[in-house]
Amino acid sequence: MDNKLKNYVIYISILTMILMTAYFFVRDQLSVQTAYIIPAYFLITLATHLILKGAFAKNPANFGQSFMGGLAFKMLASFAFLTIMYMSFGGINMDFVAVFMGVYLVYTVFEIVYLKPLSKKK
Fold first, then answer.
1. Are 104 and 71 within 8 A, CB to CB?
2. What is the model's pLDDT at position 121?
3. DSSP designation for 87
4. Which pLDDT score, from 0 to 100, does residue 14 have?
């Protein structure tokens, strides 16, 4: 199980490279502020991973609760990022919102599919 948490960083890095490659091809149609979304989500997801890894090391039996707490942290960090971007650029465009929600869903679905089985194991 602990090996699955170690491999998570590798898989999330691959996912980030795939998303950055896709962004490279469509960046001309998007606003400048969308360039910050994928790196920000990578850092938010890594922070969430560190929280989950520490919680798993302390008490593997409560991983389910820690997993839900990690998702809550990710959501709050995402809203903080959204607020910072709104204040920095004096507003946000519709393309920013679309990319923001798309990347949020991709990372969250990946996290749930990859880590949720750990909460069911003893």
1. no
2. 60
3. H
4. 92
CA 48/CA 74 separation, integer angstroms: 6
Contacts of 9 (CB under 8 A, 6+ apart): 46, 49
Question: pTM score, two decimals?
Answer: 0.81
pLDDT of residue 51: 82
DSSP 104: H
**Which amino acid is it at 35?**
A
Low-confidence ranges of the chain (pLDDT < 50): none
Question: What is the DSSP code string of the chain?
Answer: -HHHHHHHHHHHHHHHHHHHHHHHHHGGGS-GGGGGHHHHHHHHHHHHHHHHHHHHHH-GGGHHHHHHHHHHHHHHHHHHHHHHHHHHHTS--HHHHHHHHHHHHHHHHHHHHHHHHHHH--
Question: What is d(CA 50, CA 94) in angstroms, rounded to the nearest whole number?
Answer: 32
Q: Where are the domains of the chain?
A: 2-120
pLDDT at 115: 75
Specify the residue for token string 């991973």: 49
